[in-house]
Amino acid sequence: MNRLTKSCGALALALTMLVGSGRVNAQDSVATGGGGPAAATPAPAGGGDAAAGKTLFNNNCAQCHAITDEVVVGPGLKGVLQRTPGRDWLHRWIRNPMAMVGSGDAYANQVYNKFNKIPMSSFPNLTDADIDGILAYIEESNAAPAQAAVGGVAQERGGGGASAENGSGGGFGAGPSNLFTFVLVALLVVMLLVLGVLLLIVTLLSKAVSSPASGTPGAETTPFIQRLRTGLANTVNNSTIRSVIIWLFILVVSKETVDGLFSVGIQQGYAPKQPIAYSHKLHAGQYKIDCNYCHTGVNKGKNATIPSANICMNCHGVIKKESPEIQKIYAAIEQDRPIEWVRVHNLPDLAYFNHAQHVNVGNVQCQTCHGEIEKMEVVEQRSSLTMGWCIDCHRNTEVNTKDNAYYDKLVALHRKQSKMPLKVANIGGLECSKCHY
């Protein structure tokens, strides 16, 4: 009986150690990326290529117009073919709208005056086929709202292969394995079950022992609580049990220390307050402004670049001028000082990353690394951006070699050695000097 009480005491103390210091520190792993089959492109409408028109619309028109009847800067384009003088008129209007206003065209002047005489940009380089494609995209989007929601709002994931949102096993800097955490949790559950059974047995035996023995009425026994206290005291004084508790403590503290070391320099979830409240959910999500419009260096430079106040004023010179947040932009321009935006995504100086290489050459979409930026009211760092996270992406991402003669010889050499698709890792994506210089 005394031994059983001692065992219960040891289990109780061990459980206290585990519950007090065993924190589960696992990070969620969210896979992003593309490579899946693309949605079937609907048949062209109105003589134009709607698929090509979608790209042209997003690159040239989406900053000022919506494909629905919603007014952004200019009018919504739903039913534009039905309410304007015709397709030929639209060709001339889109190429040089101010020339048509100056010529006295009645409908052109009506639109110009209705929308506060805001001049529309000219697009002289767009051909008739390009404009027909844009019109076809607008018509199809409004004819099939469900399809438009998929094609117009959800942006395609890039990169050709899946890349882990958070660091996962297999790469340096990917974070500690969760096996030890799983073992601790499993041990905790087992010990809870064992303790429950033991306590039940002790209770039953205590009741049996506490009953007066036959033939000896009035016999008294030591109360259960007192025996339990005595057992706990004996357990604490037992050197073997103390050793077990100390080792459990050392293991838990060691795990917490390793987890802490792996998190040094990782700012996942970092979402600083900016000097001006800018909503990507509003601009990139609701109004579908292309990322390239503000971050002009993403296709041609190492950095995506932070937009200047002049880019903001392209729209806000006439839109929401009275807003207190927009007035901060006016103040910065008037005082000839930069807006001190706080950088969210930071890499150590020892790591080299080139946006143009990934976005322009690799066709990696913004969401692959930055998360669904078009849904963020306040931008935060969604990915861990660790070395292991990058390496896993290079191991899993297929190289887009279609219609690119530069890769022909590399693909031929790769196929002689492997039947697997050509990955970034196969063309030097794991070489140290690629990122560390």
Could you walk me through the main structural features you see in this protein, from its secondary elements to its overall organization?
Strands 1-2 form a two-stranded antiparallel ribbon. It has 437 residues and is mainly α. Helix 1 (2-21) runs antiparallel to helix 9 and helix 1 (2-21) packs across helix 10 (224-236). The longest helix is centred in the middle third of the chain and has 32 residues, at 179-210. The chain is elongated and about 110 Å long. It has 20 helices and two strands. 50% of the residues lie in helices and 1% in strands.
Q: Uncertain regions: pLDDT < 50 for 5+ in a row?
A: 1-8, 10-45, 146-175
- Approximately how much beta-strand content do the residues carry? under 5%
Report the structural category: mainly alpha
* Radius of gyration from CA coordinates: 33 Å
Which shape, going by the Cα principal axes? elongated
Specify the number of helices: 20
- SSE pattern: HEHHHHHHHEHHHHHHHHHHHH
Strand order of the largest sheet: 1-2
Q: Averaged pLDDT, please?
A: 78
How are the SSEs ordered, and which strands pair?
Elements: H1 2-21, E1 31-33, H2 50-60, H3 80-83, H4 87-95, H5 97-102, H6 106-114, H7 128-143, H8 145-153, E2 162-164, H9 179-210, H10 224-236, H11 239-262, H12 280-286, H13 291-294, H14 309-316, H15 324-334, H16 355-361, H17 366-370, H18 387-396, H19 408-417, H20 432-435
Antiparallel strand pairs: 1-2
Helix pairs in contact: 1-9, 1-10, 1-11, 2-7, 7-8, 14-15
